[in-house]
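Slide 14.
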Amino acid sequence: MRSLRVALLIPLVLALAAQARPADPARARLSKRERIALCEKKKDVPLAPGDPQPLDFKGSSMNRPVLIRRTDFKAEASSLRGFVLLEAVIDEDGCVRQATVVKGAGTILATAAVKSIRRWVFEPATRDGHPVRVKYLLTVNSE
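Slide 15: predicted structure.
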């Protein structure tokens, strides 16, 4: 009987220990400057196939990412008018990864929008207080 109690308690203790574990230092609260520097290093690094898949932000119960740095279009697109709809993965550090054009593809404006968005930096989306990787739709207007 005693071994049964121990066998039942082990998963409970492990679950509680996992919840009490301190946050990963790499995911600790970064200053705006540190987050921007981190994202500059990760700008052209693709997501690895073994990485966890991003969550779909639509209709979920998580806090949305908050933009903390936005870069403008390059000069070649500055005279163009219109909008581009993009889908991007915003990772756990708030860095934009894998930006793709959803609407407005094949234009100089779309190319400039993708280049610009890859340099944007966000406070990451969070679920239950923990940063998560999400797919997020972004609209870029050039007026």
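Speaker note: The longest strand covers residues 82-90.
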